[in-house]
Amino acid sequence: MIRDANSIPNGSRLEADVCVVGGGPAGIALALALADEGHSVLLLESGQLQEHAPTQDLYEGEVADEQLHSPPGKYRQRRLGGSSAIWGGRCMPFDPIDFETRAHIPHSGWPLSYGDLLPWYPRANALAEAGRFLYDANEALPEAGPMIAGFDSTRVLTNGLERFSCPTHFGSRYAKRLALAPTLEVLLGANCTSLQLQPDGQAVRELQVRTLQGTQFFVAARHTVLATGGLETARLLLASRDVAPQGVGNQHDVVGRYYMCHIAGNVGTLTVHGPTRNVRHGYEISPEGIYCRRRLSIAAGEQKRLGLANAVARLHFPRITDPAHRSGVLSGLFLARKMISYEYSKRLKDGAPPSAGIYARHLLNVVADPLDTTAFLAHWLAKRTLAGRKFPSVILRNRSNRFSLEVHGEQMPQAHSRVTLADSTDALGMPRLKVDWRYSRADIDSVGASLDVMAEEFERSGKARFDYNRHTLEEDLMRFGAYGGHHIGTARMGVDARSSVVNADCQVHSVRNLFVAGSAVFPTSSQANPTLTLIAMSLRLGDFLSRQLRAERSPLQMKEAA
Ligand SMILES: Cc1cc2nc3c(=O)[nH]c(=O)nc-3n(C[C@H](O)[C@H](O)[C@H](O)COP(=O)(O)OP(=O)(O)OC[C@H]3O[C@@H](n4cnc5c(N)ncnc54)[C@H](O)[C@@H]3O)c2cc1C
Known about the structure:
By secondary structure, this protein is an alpha/beta fold. It has a domain of about 325 residues: FAD/NAD(P)-binding domain. The chain is about 30% helix and about 20% strand. Strands 1, 2, 3, 8, 9, 10, 11 and 21 form an eight-stranded mixed sheet that branches. A six-stranded antiparallel sheet has the order 6-15-16-17-12-20. Flavin-adenine dinucleotide binds next to helix 1, strand 3, strand 9, helix 7 and helix 15.
């Protein structure tokens, strides 16, 4: 059942086996998994089915430096489905090396391995509607040729794939299943404003829930899972101070710290020798109809040998804002950027406002390139606007075999990159969030060293050449600051309660019935986008809780039967 939280009588106390707070991909995957096992689940979702401005305003907050990180009200959606309402749908699992303790990456190492998470990835892939769990091009696209003909390297791999979700909006896609599951109830407009602990601080007693219309009630569940996204989870833990004045799970001042995004940007020029058919840089379609894309990655052994963080690069078009590319399509995008949402137009705005001359050159590009521009518009309308499974992003026809490399790199964890509570409060009286995201010289140097490996290997192969300017690399990677919607690490997982917030089962160390689902628990960020992995982690948590609930129930059932 899905109903509005205002229908709950004021002051009442609801009960459930599990209360899941937050109905994004993490919360929906978990709630459905638990309901499938017959457990009673209450899913509290702050938002509605559609965007609602006063609810979205609850996400507003402060940033230490807006050049480095977008305001927290951006790149997040407070409604059923969470940020999957606007995500790009790029899916790929983390690499085995991401879970390892790497001497060259301080604070690295998960308390679980890739193999431990692997059983849940295929189900996560299915929920994200990304087809089969095949991320090696040789297996997924057996008929297709290599990414770059003749380029063969053990240091730079080209067989890795990204697969694309529809992109699935988890709210609209799974609303019916949520509504029909007999043991599941979804409350919309239900904002969890505080976790209230038992007096000894070791278990959640109840959750305080409030609506914007003034209804207040409480939820007492055997287990509570925070699935409120990488930033909001820290906010809720820090703001719940009735028993623990420093916030829940925060005895050692770790909640909100080690905040990571990804290090990303367009860098340099890759020139592939030979005919354009030698390169696969765009989207390919797998036999089951999923858009896939190749990328370059650095082999794990090479990362260890050179002390690198994980990073990948895709073959991309030149910087859109610079009309020197002479592409009518890119200039058209630049000119239309005011009509594109903040999240998708941010990378179309760099530096000072463009001069009239720049506008004129972009306009000229559009006028001089009518065939490509018209063909692009027709393709976009048919394959993106009107299609159920959408063409993932703008790709230009390759005429010159010249590309920039679009880098997506792991950010190393550091304690002083953090979120804290601001002095200001939202409409429900909760302290707003203050984001102070930091990157380090080591993050930039690691990407630089990865690009050097790629340049060396292209040169050695004689098949391509990559040039970039090391002196402008930091500027290239930080032009738009932290990479948008990937909010990682604020309630990190680990074995030591002094340096982590949750254990390998996602349970808050000090609170036996409180769990976290989502990228907040990732101790390191990988090169990969986070959503597929956070869904897999949610499904794993679902199985863990299901076993717990069955174990808790069985003595009681045995007593009743007797
Ligand atoms: C523009 C954009 C593009 C992206 N592209 C990709 C991509 O291509 N690939 C990828 O892997 N990831 C991508 N992401 C990231 C992806 O959207 C997130 O990783 C994913 O949505 C996180 O899921 P979640 O359930 O953990 O959190 P969210 O999606 O943030 O959901 C949290 C939910 O909790 C609810 N909530 C919050 N606070 C409360 C409260 N106090 N009480 C009750 N409910 C609450 C919210 O309303 C929301 O529904 C993108 C993000 C953006 C913004």
